[in-house]
């Protein structure tokens, strides 16, 4: 029966500590520099498994990363040094899969996109800083299906010259077809 063996490695101001079981990393692995955390990783049978975290130099979490069998699998979140959520994205077997959202520094949604097996698939949306839709396009298997539609920061669609529709025309389009907002 194999027993656990402590691992403590030092290199300058860096320190790595964890456990080996039968020669493979097992359980939490902590990496520090100058006594500040750089990463808390979780291993099972020598592979990354479970939630791991990396840290900015100021000690705040930079990323929360779900692993399964050494590959990202689940909802990953990425943060600025100030602690603001910058991006969250779904992964499956190491590939982007599902919804991915990117945020402005104030927390407002900047982009929303969908992935299937590592390629963009579905609706892609980019937003103005005020929360209004700026661009919308449709993708299938990584290929753009349409030219997409651009929008002014007040929500009005842009014409082929990049100019917003007149407010009267926009109002009329919305009044005649309420589902077009």
Structural notes for this entry:
InterPro entries: MORN_2. It comes from Pseudomonas fontis. Pfam families: MORN_2 (PF07661). With 181 residues, the chain is mainly beta. Helices cover 6% and strands 57% of the residues. It has one helix at 167-176; strands spanning 4-11, 14-21, 24-25, 27-33, 36-44, 47-48, 50-55, 61-68, 71-72, 74-79, 85-92, 95-103, 109-116, 119-120, 122-127, 133-140, 143-144, 149-150. It has an 18-stranded antiparallel sheet that branches. It is elongated and about 75 Å long. 14% of the residues are buried. The model has no long low-confidence stretch (mean pLDDT 91).
| Overall pLDDT metric | 91
| Coarse structural class | mainly beta
Silhouette: elongated
The H-and-E topology, N to C, reads as EEEEEEEEEEEEEEEEEEH
Oligomer: single chain
The value of Rg in angstroms is: 23 Å
Beta-strand content: over 45%
Q: Would you report the number of β strands?
A: 18
What's the story with the biggest beta sheet?
Answer: 18 strands, antiparallel
Euclidean distance between termini CA atoms: 67 Å
Q: Low-confidence segments, ≥5 residues, pLDDT <50?
A: none
DSSP helix count? Answer: 1
Helical residue percent band? under 10%
Region (Disordered): 1-20
Pfam families: MORN_2
Protein name: Toxin-antitoxin system YwqK family antitoxin
